[in-house]
Every structure is written in structure tokens, then in C-alpha cells.
Amino acid sequence: MKIEIEVKAFGKDEVQGTLVAYKSNELMRVHNLSDKTTIAEVETLLEALFEEVERGFINPEQCVGKITIRAKKENGEIKYLG
Does the pLDDT of residue 13 top 90, yes or no? Predict the structure, then answer.
């Protein structure tokens, strides 16, 4: 099964010559996983991406993640895409 993991960090930034500035850092990874993959294993992948995003952004105001599993129903069965 294919999953997509996206993580975004954002917040205020100090830029000389500006009154207010914001910065964001966003990463997306696609993984092909076995249907026996556990939620704990997916959380480990998510945590690794959080750490990677936060390395490029010190003390973000917010850091959010999204996990997407793509599937369709075909002939009464769920088929995972990817």
C-alpha cells in the first residue's frame, strides 16, 4: 500500500528591514508499505519527518503532519493504489 506523509513547520521569522516576516518548511515523502505495517511503524516514519523538518526551522510556532492512504473500491473490494 502506498502512503504519503506530509509535514509542515511554520512561524514568525526575523528578517532585517521588515516589520513582520513568516517562514515555513514543508516536506513530503511517499512510502510503499506492506499491508501488515502497524500504526506504530507509520508513526515512526512520521516522527522521522517531523525531526527532519524541525532541523531546518528552529522553534516553529506550529508543526503539523498529514498521512494519506489512497484506495478505491473496485468490484466490491478495496484496492490500495500504489
Answer: no
